[in-house]
From TrEMBL:
Cellular component aspect of the GO annotation: cytosol
Source superkingdom: Bacteria
A GO molecular-function descriptor: monooxygenase activity
Keywords linked to the UniProt accession: Monooxygenase, Oxidoreductase
Organism annotation: Bacillus yapensis
SUPFAM superfamilies cross-referenced by the UniProt entry: Bacterial luciferase-like (SSF51679)
One Pfam family in the UniProt entry: Bac_luciferase
Protein's recorded name: LLM class flavin-dependent oxidoreductase
Amino acid sequence: MREFEFGVYSLGERIPDANGNSRTAGSRVEDIIQMAKMADEAGLDIFGVGEHHRLDFVTSSYAMLLAAVARETKNIKLTSTLSVISTADPVRVYEDFATLDLLSNGRTEIILGRGAFLESFSLFGASLNDYNDLFEEKLNLFLKLQEQEVVSWQGNFRSPLQNAQIAPRPVQKKLPLWIGVGGTPASAVRAGRLGLNMALGLLGGRPESVKPLTDLYWQSAKEAGHDVSKLRVSVTGHSYIAQTGEQAITEFVPHYNQYMGYFSKDRGIPYFYTTAEQLMPQRAAGQILAVGSAEELAEKILYQHELFGHSRFMGQFDMGGQPLARVEKSIDLLANKVAPIVHRALSK
């Protein structure tokens, strides 16, 4: 069994605080790099940056940010969380991440998906009417780029390739590839059928409601003849850790409200607000929201591991303007408290 891995990621949002003030793009970029260095020095396994193309994010050129992180870190693996392959050129994405693998000396992974935001479709001239077909075609092209240095290919959404030289090649024979999955059963089935790792984005609710999704993934992989011992599932989501569960909720809730309230408006929800008292029950093992003490988060991860069979956890600790000093404390608790508890329990 693979050893359980722990990591953190940033989406790089810079939304207004309670006083209406937003961070500068430059300071937010610097925070992301510092966060990665903290995670590397703490001994975490993986650091990720997500792709977004809006003024309230700084991560449109997420591969460039990861390249900067690669030169500031030594051991931690680097990934996208995630790459919106539907609206990108798979050749360009592959070249960027192969180069990142050279810069990081073989520490690069990639998560491909369709994303929770849709701004890249109009920005790059893609039609939402082709939402599923775009992803299917471009994913399959990316898989071919992984296998061959010289590629001939033809599809519906980009110009054909005729003996195209795909360079550079990465340090690794293949870049470790994950498919980002929200709540769509068809996406879980596709990842399993193709024999690709699955990265689950879980934001709340009860883990039992997600188990059918992971069951579909493992079942599809087996039916397609893949060696499931070589496949992996990860869980990502909103996270925060403090010395006590009460402290974690109290420090988390204003930033959670700021973040969720801001982005809920994009989805037609004009008002979002919760209280610390309302969130306190979310510390229980049977709740997905990854907020609490180190012991409580470890219990959640172990509970979900029984249901999902996952082997990686990644937390979004910097959401909603959480101060970098607090993020650093959370990273330390994840690496030095949560991880040892989980590793000891799973070794038994």
